[in-house]
Specification:
- The structure is a single chain.
- This protein is of the alpha+beta class.
- The protein has 2 domains: 1-29, no CATH class; 31-133, no CATH class.
- The chain has 3 helices and 9 strands, in the order βββααβββββαβ.
- The strands form 3 sheets. The chain has a 5-stranded mixed sheet with strand order 3-6-7-8-9, covered by helices on one side. Strands 1-2 form a two-stranded antiparallel sheet.
Length: 136
């Protein structure tokens, strides 16, 4: 049980009705407008260490992301939820990102978010980074 944690935790209910525990008084935050997107890499700890990823990875997408043997595809996250996958290739000295939305057509704000992620990668790697939609 959770008796050792005492008053420091509270039982809460997840979006699908699953009972969860949270630090008492923890601020879940307020979603930003537009919701933030993030790109995670292979084996990102955000998804790696959980037997049940259902709170962040819809079961309908699980086989596209957790492909077996502990292998996890890079993910596109929106508000912490997996909404796509991506990969990179090199075109000469330029890194090219290919992004595949998995939850339907790309959201209108995804392109702007990918521009920002590409710019951040470009700054970090000191190489040009472009992106496109396509099958991964």
């Amino acid at each position: 049980g959770h008796a050792a944690a005492g008053e420091r935790i509270a039982q809460v209910t997840g979006p699908d009705g699953t009972p969860l525990v949270a630090a008492r008084g923890a601020d879940a935050g307020t979603p930003q407008d537009p919701p933030p997107y993030r790109l995670t890499g292979h084996f990102d700890p955000y998804l790696l260490g959980y037997a049940d990823r259902g709170l962040v990875l819809p079961p309908s997408l699980a086989s596209r992301i957790a492909t077996g043997g502990g292998f996890l595809m890079p993910c596109v996250l929106r508000d912490g939820m997996v909404v796509g996958t991506w990969r990179h290739t090199w075109r000469g000295a330029e890194m090219a990102l290919r992004v595949e939305p998995l939850t339907g057509p790309p959201a209108p704000d995804l392109g702007e978010a990918l521009d920002a992620e590409a710019a951040d990668l470009s700054r970090f790697l000191a190489v040009p980074v472009g992106w496109e939609y396509g099958a991964v």
